[in-house]
Write a structure and sequence with these properties.
Largest sheet: 7 strands, mixed
Shape: globular
Number of strands: 18
Strand content: 15-25%
Distance between the termini: 31 Å
Number of domains: 2
Length: 453
């Protein structure tokens, strides 16, 4: 249906399409299309596939009302393509023995054990900068992939402009994503065990019943069961490792879907997992080595430094793609404290081993006390790339929500691109109108021009 200001939006939309400026079209849609595209009834229907799902629906409605945004986000097809190119280039870098030697030098002991499993659900997180997509960080246990597969099936075209864009994208629906995700877990198993049947999976996180993304754990459990795989959700302390292998309450565990933020498996509750990892008695994915190769924030220092990449044997074309897509990142050292303080407004500070925006600070928000804590810790400073915005009408008022983009990746292939809409300094799921949002790639007429523009 038409939305407030839709005639102005139509003019901008059509003019951008004529010029082939898909980035401008996406910006126009993000600013002007304020309507609701999420069909809540369709979302309930997509979730109601198991007799146990009534409690799941209640959990989402009552305690997680801002998990799903009410509208989709719009990104130019060029930017989607460019993100995939940056991902592919980084995968080439990570595959180099010299890269692995460099980053494993500062990694924990558990990361030095080799593995044939690659690690499921790598998350490449981007902001859209003036020069195209900029990689903010990589995560090895990126949540939300399955939730977003379901979310994508519950969208409707809410205005003519969106209907046009959705029609142009008909060839790329995500109906098979769930099957692809199951195939990914089977591929992890087969990489380590060959053609032996995968019988059981433990979805492991600390106090899982208290985790915000518990609904996704439950949906994964249902999904695995529908494909003939026994699945449990448990705390790592419930696992036991003996010479016979890894077990949960006496039942053998073949594969662990690891959602822990104890990336090195160093914490006491992870003892059984750590033993199983070193013994190779269970397949763990993602695992400590994957985190060290991809997600340690110190890796961003290397990725943004062309001289260091060159010294590792990276080709010039790959260097150009990586450096253009990764904001300059530096290790924070006390010897340069005055320089970092002077430049702080143009920087974003993150703990090297952090996750989920914990301990992360925009430089313009820093106090001297917090800056002293940063100097005493193990931090990196990244050139600030402010997120773009998505304008929506929430509770009768027009608000501008910040937007970041997550690429879910397996073995170099981008499986899904989604957005997170939020207000505040960092991503969160506390914003009315915000949460996970499907990404609609706005097509370009002149695809060959300016992929990074």
């Amino acid at each position: 249906m038409p939305v407030k200001g839709s005639s102005k939006l139509s003019e901008t939309f059509l003019a951008a399409l004529v010029s082939g400026n898909c980035a401008g079209t996406a910006e126009a849609l993000n600013a002007g299309c304020q309507c609701v595209s999420l069909d809540r009834q369709a979302l309930v229907g997509a979730l109601a596939r198991d007799p146990r799902d009534g409690a799941l629906q209640a959990m989402l409605a009552e305690s997680r009302p801002h998990l799903f945004a009410d509208s989709m986000a719009f990104v130019s097809a060029r930017h989607v393509k460019r993100m995939a190119e940056v991902v592919a280039a980084i995968e080439q870098v990570v595959a180099l023995p010299a890269w692995q030697d460099a980053v494993l030098a500062w990694a924990p002991e558990t990361a030095r054990r080799s593995a044939k499993a690659a690690g499921v659900f790598l998350g490449y997180d981007f902001h859209l900068g003036a020069d195209g997509p900029q990689l903010i960080e990589i995560n090895t246990n990126a949540g939300g992939g399955l939730l977003n597969a379901i979310l994508g099936r519950a969208q409707r075209a809410c205005c003519n402009e969106v209907a046009e864009a959705m029609e142009a994208m008909q060839g790329s629906d995500a109906a098979d994503l769930e099957a692809r995700f199951v195939a990914m877990f089977r591929a992890e198993w087969q990489a380590e065990r060959g053609e032996v049947a995968l019988r059981s999976i433990a979805i492991v996180d600390e106090a899982p019943q208290e985790q915000y993304l518990l609904p996704e754990f439950l949906i994964f459990q249902r999904l695995f069961e529908r494909h003939g795989i026994t699945a449990w959700i448990c705390d790592p302390a419930e696992l036991v490792h003996t010479g016979a292998g890894l077990t949960l309450h006496g039942q053998p565990v073949d594969l662990v879907y690891n959602r822990l933020t104890d990336f090195a498996l160093d914490a006491p509750p992870s003892r059984a997992l750590r033993e199983a990892w070193f013994a190779g008695s269970a397949v763990i994915t993602p695992h400590p080595r994957a985190h060290a190769l991809y997600a340690d924030k110190r890796n961003l220092v290397l990725l943004s430094d062309p001289a260091r990449l060159r010294s590792l044997g990276v080709g010039e074309g790959t260097i150009a793609t990586v450096v253009a897509g990764v904001p300059r990142t530096e290790a924070v050292v006390r010897e340069q404290a005055d320089d970092f303080w002077a430049r702080r407004r143009r920087l974003f500070f993150k703990p090297a081993s952090g996750f989920g925006s914990r301990g992360a600070y925009r430089g313009d928000k820093l106090t001297r006390r917090v800056f002293e804590d940063i100097l005493a810790g193990d931090y990196i400073a990244q050139a600030l790339v402010p997120p773009t915005e998505r304008r929506l009408e929430v509770e009768g008022a027009t608000v501008d929500l910040k937007m970041d983009l997550r690429n879910y990746v397996y073995r170099g292939e981008v499986q899904l691109v989604t957005a997170r809409l939020y207000r505040g300094q960092t991503t969160n799921f506390r914003t009315p109108g915000g949460g996970f949002a499907p990404v609609l790639a706005v097509p370009c007429e002149h695809e060959g021009e300016g992929a990074g523009a």
